[in-house]
Write a structure and sequence with these properties.
Layout lengths: L5 E11 L4 E14 L21 E9 L2 E10 L6
Antiparallel strand pairs: 1-2, 1-3, 3-4
C-alpha cells in the first residue's frame, strides 16, 4: 500500500454475497505504523482457518481504521467425486 501515514488498525471482514451476511467477525491486526506517505507498506495477514458454511461467493473486505479500502471475491464450490 502507499499514501499512508500514521497508525492504522486493519480489519478483514468475510461476507457471504448470497445474503450479504457477515460470516466471520472482524479479524483485526494490532497497531500498524506507516512512517512516510512515500514508502510502500507491506501488510501480511495470517488468517485462521475460515469455515465457509455455504457454497457460493464470498467477499473479503479490508478496512483501515473502519474505512473500507478494498476487497477481493472468492467462490466456493461443492466437490463431487466422479
Amino acid at each position: 500500500m502507499t499514501d499512508a501515514e500514521g497508525e492504522y488498525k486493519f480489519v478483514v471482514r468475510i461476507v457471504y454475497l448470497g445474503d450479504e451476511e457477515e460470516t466471520v467477525g472482524g479479524l483485526e491486526t494490532g497497531a500498524v505504523v506507516a512512517a512516510n506517505r512515500l514508502q510502500v507498506l507491506n501488510l501480511a495477514l495470517n488468517l485462521p482457518p475460515v469455515p465457509f458454511p455455504k457454497f457460493g461467493r464470498y467477499e473479503f473486505q479490508l478496512l483501515a481504521n473502519d474505512v473500507y479500502i478494498g476487497r477481493t471475491v472468492i467462490t466456493t464450490l461443492k466437490y463431487e467425486a466422479k
